[in-house]
Amino acid sequence: RRTPPRTKEGWYILHDFRTVDWDAWRAAPDHVRERALEEGAAFLDDCEAVVDAEEGDSATFAMLGHEVDLLVMHIRPTMAEVERLGRRFDGTAFAEFTERADSYISVAEVSDYVTDAYFEEDEEVENTGLKRYLEQKLYPQIPDAEYVNFYPMSKRRDPEYNWYDLPFEDRSEHMSSHGDIGRSYGGKVSQITAGSIGFDDHEWSVSLFANDPANIKNLLAEMRFDPSTSKYAEFGRFYVGRRFEPADLEAYMAG
Ligand code: 76R
């Protein structure tokens, strides 16, 4: 039996994907649509202002492609809080025109692959950039960027390439070279990677944020050639979307 990495868990994340029933929307009378827009925008506004909890963050994205129309992303200190936001949305008049097409639940985490300083509570770590980096990983705010990319992933468990059979040192080395690629996109792509073992169908959720979507593609392409990905990664579905302000819900629905 191998040693699992030590992890620390932070805030919970719900990716709430919706499709819009455009036929019903176009057929609805003006007063119904007005009320739906009012309630929808107010709900999203409240989420972004985090009126429901002590801390956290939320954001709304218009998704590209045919599978989903909207993503509402919620980050809150507890699982119960993100779950409640999904249901509160359903309580709005706007949600009557949407259906939950997909969702993903995960928790922000840090592991001791790259440095075990994370797990030491001493003064030296306390006041360093590392400490701030750790906190920003555990208690993430949604980066201020135009585009989002989301996908779930797992580490492979094949007879030949079994991540969970590798010694800790090997996994740590892989993660370190993986991290080097990631850090070379500093300032261009920000990431929120969160653990979902036991919560959802894959083992992590990956949410990437960038103003230039080509940077996301290029970062992922580079990682595909790194052994941590080329040998050991398995992916779920991919989504891409563009952030919009709750006040622009009306413009979004007008098409
Ligand atoms: O430097 C550090 O302190 C953290 C280094 C690091 C770890 C341990 C790191 C850095 N990641 C780590 C762990 Mn990551 N990450 C992904 C994907 O598409 C793909 O090929 C993979 C999807 C991306 C895009 C990404 C980005 N990372 C992990 C793990 C957990 C492994 C485990 O525990 O077994 C997964 C599944 C994963 C996947 N990673 C970075 C990035 C980026 C951009 C960085 C550097 C910037 C940063 O640290 O925030």
What is the CATH superfamily? Apc35880, domain 1
Rounded radius of gyration (Å): 20 Å
The major sheet is characterized as: 8 strands, antiparallel, barrel
Under the CATH scheme, which architecture would be assigned?
Answer: 2-Layer Sandwich
Q: How much helix, percentage-wise, in residues?
A: 25-40%
Uncertain regions spanning at least 5 consecutive residues:
none
For the biggest β-sheet, the strand order reads 1-3-2-9-5-7-6-4
Order of helices and strands: EHHEEHEHHEHEEHHEEH
Shape: globular
Ligand species: ligand 76R
CATH topology: Alpha-Beta Plaits
The oligomeric state of the chains shown is: single chain
pLDDT average, as an integer?
95
* Terminal Cα span: 55 Å
Q: What is the CATH class designation?
A: Alpha Beta
Task: Please describe what this structure looks like.
The protein is of the alpha+beta class. It is 35% helix and 29% strand. The protein has nine helices and nine strands. It has an eight-stranded antiparallel β-barrel, surrounded by four helices. A hairpin with an 8-residue loop joins β6 and β7. The longest helix has 19 residues, at 30-48. It is globular and about 65 Å long. The model has no long low-confidence stretch (mean pLDDT 95). It binds ligand 76R. Ligand 76R is lined by residues 5, 111, 113-114, 153, 155, 175, 178-179, 182-183, 185, 189, 191, 193, 204, 206, 208, 220, 223, 229, 233. Ligand 76R binds next to β5, α6, β6, β7 and α7.
In short:
By secondary structure, this protein is an alpha+beta fold. The protein contains nine helices and nine strands. Ligand 76R is lined by residues 5, 111, 113-114, 153, 155, 175, 178-179, 182-183, 185, 189, 191, 193, 204, 206, 208, 220, 223, 229, 233.
